[in-house]
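Subject: sequence -> structure tokens, single chain

Hey, anyone have a minute? Need the predicted structure for the following. Not urgent.
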Amino acid sequence: MNDVNQYSGNAVDELEQMRRMLADSQSEVAQLRKVASEALDVARRAQSAAGHPNGMPSAGASTDGTMTKIAATLHHGGLASSVGETVLSVAIRDAYVQYAEVVSIARRSSELQAIIDERLLKSAYASGTDPLVAQRHRTADDYQKLHNFDKGYQDNNWLVDHCDAIQSIQPRTVVEVGCGNGRFLRKISAQVPQVIGLDWARSPHLRELPANVEFRTTDVLKDDIATGDICVSADVLEHFEPPVLPGLIRKMHAAARYNYHVIACYDDGHSHCSVFHPGQWAGLFQQVSPDYRLVGTITRPGRPDRIACVITNVPNAERFFPKLGPIVGTWATADGKTLRILNNFKVDIGGTVVASWFPMANGTAAMKWNENNVIDLLALNHDGSQMTVQNSKGAVFNVRKVN
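Reply:
Had a minute. Here:
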């Protein structure tokens, strides 16, 4: 039990470090709010100056300079905040990793194993304390209706942002459990010879698929899971009730040498039946194999209060985290230039760093050019294949995703 005490102490230290970092972040946010208020005030004064009968040219010139200064301050503050969030996410991941290690060590004791397993699988729904559990979507018909009529189910697919990590093992066959609208199937099919999608409901978006993609109507709790080099899922496992999870995880592990799963850790109010924190998910997977690791915690786009975790046994998958979203990558401009938006918050054109950027909570991003104080707003289209760039002077152009 000394090992348990040691790991518990480390986890407490990590949590205290997280608390201090959160306090620093709150201070930074307070400063950004102050600057944002100044920006609004300047904008109001600029509008008043524009409507003044004398035009107030001197005030206008002063306003332009102030606006430029505030824009730069917001940029640097936002960049600092993004870096702080990145550091904080690493600390949070480490704390959850230590939780899973405590679980694994404690399970070595025959006296503790049954208690640990019982508590690991406990959630509001499992223990019967949620009166709405009977109303949750838990049948194939429920999910068929969601795929047919719910825009979120028709558009969202978290796995499309994880192709780089999945492709890193150079698989020949990829099996996706709960393939939903098929966006990941289509994207990864350009990189691997064979892709198999499994779901117990068939999305209308799966009517036409690439030649190397196969869809199978499957109840993964009852039917065999197709075998492949890697078995993947996203926004799937939390939809199953806790008692069936250990068996399902073992089944997926047996279907492929590698597994990669993105799992929501929050209650969506209508279909999530297992709401565990990332450490609990890591503990469940590590009962099947010690090779499974919690490699990242991410947030749902536009919802920083909704956390998801990434559990995998893919070697070195940690290098792909923290994820900075689909904006990172290589983009082609209409005039043939290549724009590279990098993980280190820099923007590169032709091998030269020309700008810096930072993500914003609503899924967009802002980019500031080094040679001037012009700041561009970056916004993705629905499938992430194109991005609209609008600068502070009103000019708009589009770029196309290359990889």
